[in-house]
């Protein structure tokens, strides 16, 4: 069995859907379906139970999934050790977001346990570049939040966080159990500098043009709320400065935590990081 085919199989098994798996693999669905049928013919058993709503694993598929994951993990570790022996043992990671995120903390610990020989370089970035320098060639991989222009990039979702509006603690809106975007229509928000990714800007503006102070980092946004009474935005569960409150927004799509790398980049260090990150962010 080819490792590529096993990666296809694992993607379908995890997504439970050929279309979503094809999108994740950045390929069209027909060749993916053919590859899975050829794999089933090779093992002599059906691996999936197919239905109009998706697919489920058969008993044979469940066994293969466990073995395929183990084999792919071993292949990634082998490639990483070879890269280290060849002197290519460094990885630059761009990070946007809360440095105290437990997912990031678990990822760092798990990656160090598995790859203590790898030199990890971190590039922290501000709110003007959601790709964290990836599109500019400054990093190998990014831990960030979507949406943004992902042309020529591979994006893997790690978690989705509900979002809330940040207001002063003495603001009448702070007493509400929840808010809708319409409740904030007449309020001043914040803006990103000119040239910021339009998809990113539109999401954090709730889909509407907004007026307010220009901010580049999270703390500037929080301080604008504190000093000027503007509206800020934050994933729920993130700490905000004293004097501020976060009220859930029930009609805003969750903020997706993602890991992103360049399409076509076969660096085994990135592949291993993606695998470990997927597990780390799924832990409670």
Secondary structure layout plus pairing:
Layout (H helix, E strand, L loop, with lengths): L2 H13 L2 H8 L3 H15 L4 E4 L2 E4 L1 H27 L4 E6 L6 H13 L4 E6 L16 E6 L6 E9 L1 E6 L29 H7 L13 H11 L3 E4 L8 E5 L6 E8 L5 H15 L2
Parallel strand pairs: 3-4, 3-5
Antiparallel strand pairs: 1-2, 5-10, 6-10, 7-8, 7-9
Helix pairs in contact: 1-2, 1-4, 4-8, 5-8
Q: In words, what does this structure look like?
A:
The chain is an alpha+beta fold. It has a 5-stranded mixed sheet, with helices on one face. The chain has a 3-stranded antiparallel sheet with strand order 8-7-9, with helices on one face. The chain has a two-stranded antiparallel sheet with strand order 1-2. A hairpin with a 2-residue loop joins strand 1 and strand 2. The radius of gyration is 21 Å and the shape is globular.
What key attributes describe this structure?
284 residues, five-stranded mixed beta sheet, three-stranded antiparallel beta sheet
Condensed summary:
The protein is an alpha+beta fold. It has eight helices and ten strands. The chain has a five-stranded mixed sheet with strand order 4-3-5-10-6, covered by helices on one side. It has a three-stranded antiparallel sheet with strand order 8-7-9, covered by helices on one side. A two-stranded antiparallel ribbon has the order 1-2.
The SSE string, one letter per element, is HHHEEHEHEEEEHHEEEH
The helix fraction, in percent, is 25-40%
How many distinct beta strands?
10
Total count of helical runs of at least 4 residues: 8
Shape: globular
Average pLDDT value? Answer: 90
| Beta content | 15-25%
Q: Which segments are poorly predicted (pLDDT under 50) over 5 or more consecutive residues? A: none
SS content category:
alpha+beta
Largest sheet descriptor: 5 strands, mixed
Sheet with the most strands: spatial strand order? 4-3-5-10-6
> What is the radius of gyration?
21 Å
Terminal residue distance: 34 Å
């Amino acid at each position: 069995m080819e490792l590529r085919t096993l990666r296809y199989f694992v993607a379908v098994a995890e997504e439970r859907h050929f279309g979503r798996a094809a999108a994740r693999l950045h390929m069209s669905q027909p060749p993916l379906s053919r590859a899975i049928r050829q794999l089933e013919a090779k093992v002599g058993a059906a691996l999936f139970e197919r239905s109009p709503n998706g697919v489920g694993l058969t008993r044979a598929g469940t066994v293969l999934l466990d073995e395929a994951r183990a084999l792919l993990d071993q292949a990634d570790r082998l490639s990483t050790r070879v890269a280290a022996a060849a002197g290519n043992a460094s990885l630059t990671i761009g990070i946007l977001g809360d440095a105290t995120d437990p997912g990031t903390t678990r990822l760092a610990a798990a990656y160090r346990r598995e790859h203590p020989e790898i030199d990890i370089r971190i590039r922290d970035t501000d709110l003007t570049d959601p790709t964290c320098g990836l599109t500019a060639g400054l990093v190998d991989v990014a831990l960030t939040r979507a949406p943004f222009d992902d042309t020529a990039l591979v994006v893997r979702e790690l978690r989705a966080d509900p979002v809330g509006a940040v207001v002063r603690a003495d603001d009448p809106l702070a007493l509400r159990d929840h808010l809708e975007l319409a409740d904030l229509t007449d309020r001043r928000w914040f803006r990103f500098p000119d040239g910021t990714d339009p998809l990113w800007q539109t999401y954090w503006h709730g889909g509407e043009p907004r007026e307010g102070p220009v901010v580049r980092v999270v703390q500037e946004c929080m301080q604008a709320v504190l000093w000027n009474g503007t509206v800020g935005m934050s994933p729920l569960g993130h700490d905000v400065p004293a004097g501020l409150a976060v009220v859930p927004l029930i009609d805003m799509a969750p903020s997706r935590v993602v890991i992103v790398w360049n399409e076509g980049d076969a660096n085994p260090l990135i592949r291993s990081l993606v695998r470990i990150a997927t597990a780390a962010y799924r832990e409670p």
